[in-house]
Amino acid sequence: MSAPTVTDLPIAFRLPELANTLPKAFHPETDRLMDESRWWARRHLGFAYAGNTGRVDKNVDGTLLVSLSMPHADYELALCAAKVMNYLIGIENSLVDKAGLGGSSFATRNVFGRFMADLIGWGDGHTPLSEDFGWLRNRMPRDRWTRFVSYLEDFAHGFTTELEDWRDAGVSDYDTYMRDRRHSLGVRWLFGFAEEAIRDLRIPPQAFEHPDVVEIHDTAIDGYTLINDLVSYRKELVMGDHVNLVYHLGESEGLDLEGAMNRICALIDETEGKFLDLRDRISNGPHGDAPGMRGYLNEVGHIMTSNLWWATVSERYQPGGFPWDGSIAGTMTFHRDRVDFLADPPADD
């Protein structure tokens, strides 16, 4: 059996309840963040949406993803992160156009080159983020800023490498795909904001090199990736995009859609359990008593699960939001233009 094609739609399949062990929380000033992000995006991001204000407004809900990723950040920091998120989403959306940015790796590298130059203060102010980056450079301690720059450098390299080297080839194997997505999905840079979000945090630089801390960062990105592939699959199926684990499981293991989706759900629960074990191990390890360590690890947990909660309130994957958040089992149906979900009735006591 191979992965379904768009001509097979509609397809109905069962989904289980997820463990959903980690908490969900929005930033307390989410409405204000959305209002200011919308004003900023209309002023600066029209280039990514052909000047279409409606498309700008639709995609500014990247701010909600930030709200769910760092609910404990102060307002100015959260707004800065929202601007970065919405700018990067604008670039990603532009890459769909093969007659435009998506058709030129040289232009794409130039876009990221100017972005990184503005980040470190060596640019020409080409991006609308140069002032925000200057503010962030002055705010962050030097070692934290150095990590943050390395996180964004990692994403810029990973994203362009995906476009140039392996996106058209698709998923080769599970381990390689997950390793590559740790660099190309655009999650790691959020850890830099998460550090800055925790008041009075004083984690020593060497703690970030400890194997358990390295692993918990990778585990958080793995969890985010699995959730991403689950909630985005219907949209990518219609677009003909095969860079998704659901498609890979159908092609490589012969799983039908229900089997592949349930495998992803099991991997999400397994990864969340691994994250919790690592969090406890770090908390009881040599750096567990560092001021702010527990709060930082909790914020990393919010980043890992943010994509699931975001999918339910964003227009990105379907109008009105994805109808399932893992809190209940039921039957999902993929149509060309939408996803329906029918929850199981409550079990009799």
TrEMBL record:
This is Terpene synthase. Its EC number is 4.2.3.-. One of its GO terms (molecular function) is metal ion binding. Belongs to the terpene synthase family. Its cofactor is Mg(2+). Keywords: Lyase, Magnesium, Metal-binding. It is an enzyme of class 4 (lyase). InterPro entries: Isoprenoid_synthase_dom_sf, Terpene_cyclase-like_2. It comes from Embleya hyalina. It holds the Pfam family Terpene_syn_C_2.
